[in-house]
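Quick start: load a record and inspect it. Here is CGNR zinc finger domain-containing protein:
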Amino acid sequence: MLWDDFVNSEWHDWRGSGRCEDRLDQEKWLQWFMQQDQITATRLPSKKELNELKELRSFLFDLIRHITSGGNLAANHIETLNRWMGKAPVYRQLTQAAAEQSVNLSYFPANANWTQVMAEISASFASTLGNGELSRIRICDNPDCLWVYYDDTRNRSKRYCDDKMCGNLMKVRRFRAKKKLSTPPSTDSMPAVEE
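Running the structure step on this input writes:
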């Protein structure tokens, strides 16, 4: 989804080194993002646009954190999303598949700039809020990771962004912590008692 690729542009080292990087500052990542999510901007963002992108990302992450901690959408959240979406117009077009009798209403960006992109990112998130289930929006349970994702599993039980990376790491950490608590200190590490 467009919105989660965007929010995850602030990367944190999931292994716990404390290292993080803002991928919005990386031209290579921006080009990947533009291609991956079919961004209509014709150039890389200006300094002002980059600051606005970071402001939007911060708002979305704070809102996601609010939702994942059990909070409800408030009027100010909706107003802010509407403000971001309202910055750029879209064209509506009705399309029909050749072999089908059904029609679809499609939306096409009116501009090819970063203001339009920010509106599209906001609309992508708003669509998830409107059509999805808020309980499926998650932040990885690995406190070092903070990766945002939409849990599309049938039983809604996904706890980690990736079971093979964060999931395994957290299992190992729990195992080691449990072992450390249950293992008595060795006699080698105890100071000798003089008589």
